[in-house]
Amino acid sequence: NLQATTTLHNGVKMPWVGLGVYKVKEGSEVVAAVKTAIKQGYRSIDTAAIYKNEEGVGEGIREGIKEAGISREDLFITSKVWNEDFGYEATIEAYETSLKKLGLHYLDLYLIHWPVEGKYLDTWKALETLYIENRVKSIGVSNFQIHHLEDVMKYAKIIPMVNQVEFHPKLSQVELLSYCKLHNIQLEAWSPLMQGQLLEDPKLIEIAKSHNKSVAQVILRWDIQNGVVTIPKSIQNHRIIENSSIFDFTLSSDELKQIAALNDNKRVGPDPDNFD
Ligand code: NAD
Questions:
Q1: Is 272 in the pocket of ligand 1 (CB under 6 A)?
Q2: Whole-model pTM?
Q3: In the UniProt entry, which residues are flagged as the active site (predicted)?
């Protein structure tokens, strides 16, 4: 069930599955996707300032909660501060801008989008301020490697609650995942479907067939069974539904191992140690 949650180290509950809206167009496209997802039972939406669709996400939220008969407090909304807005003051301002665009009074999670060298510590301080002042429910990072996390934790008053990174069967992040588990940082998978590139994998097809499920469902189930929050993106109604129908089957430990064996450290996105 889509309301299933993990509990972050500050006690806030975060849904295991959410809708990602990277590359979903501002305007009617994103409004419809968010509204459909909420009506289908999704409670978590992942956007970012740089996706340039926060206004439409906000409208989709308002329409979705009305039609689903729920309230804003039932939702878990994430956005991210973009690299160009890093630094203490600029981050606080960027947060307010995101809130305004979304039409919300608070976010459930605000993330540092990328570990921009020399800039993410001040940015983290701003997130701590927003959290301490109770303007945001939880704070975290994205695309942080172990060394970035160690660096932040040396200076931080608050340990990040979440680290959102590229994670899928071809990039299973074994060391980072166990590091995050050790420090109670919830790992969250972006591009969980490798942007569609994994759907023809013979091993995944074989496992999917044996459960009468799709490859996408097997991958997303694998995330959850690994203790990783997942945020697949789709704008198609039937896929939005499909991607959330993953709570009625279980992968065996042998199947989990077979999927983990597909890892070859292959990325679709930039390397966090070497990006523009
Ligand atoms: P994804 O792995 O979720 O793949 C999405 C694509 O897979 C869709 O466009 C569609 O072509 C296909 N697809 C989706 N569901 C399917 C299904 N059931 N069957 C067949 N094909 C299907 O890729 P993504 O959008 O890059 O990642 C998900 C979300 O993660 C983003 O929307 C965004 O919210 C977040 N993200 C964050 C970062 C970051 O730096 N923090 C980077 C990239 C993405």
A1: no
A2: 0.98
A3: 51
* pLDDT interval class at 3 (50, 70, 90): confident
Q: Which residues are catalytic?
A: 51
User: Do the Cβ atoms of 4 and 221 come closer than 8 Å?
Assistant: no
Please check whether residue 272 lies inside any domain of the structure. Answer: no
Contacts with 256 (C-beta within 8 Å, 6 or more apart), sequence order: 222, 225, 226
207-230 core/surface letters (b: 16 or more CB in 10 A; e: else): bbeebebbbbbbbbbbbbbbebbb
| Host domain of residue 106 | 5-260
- Distance separating alpha carbons of residues 222 and 230, to the nearest angstrom: 10
ipTM above 0.95, yes or no: yes
User: Total domain count for the chain?
Assistant: 1
Q: For residue 21, how far is its CA from the centre of ligand 1 (angstroms)?
A: 8
Give 255's contacts (C-beta < 8 A, 6+ positions apart): 207
Assess if residue 274 is contained within a domain. no
Spacing, Cα 53 to ligand 1 middle (Å) = 15
State the residue for tokens 């109770």.
Answer: 134
Is residue 267 assigned to a domain? no
Place of tokens 């990602």: 20
CB of residue 88 inside a 6 A radius of ligand 1: no
DSSP class of residue 164 equals E
Give the closest residue (by CA) to ligand 1 atom 35: 190
In this structure, is residue 190 part of a structural domain? yes
Task: Read off the CATH number of the domain in which 78 is found.
Answer: 3.20.20.100
Q: How far is the CA of 30 from the centre of ligand 1 (A)?
A: 14
The pLDDT tens digits of the residues spanning 32-84 come to 999 999 999 999 999 999 999 999 999 999 999 999 999 999 999 999 999 99
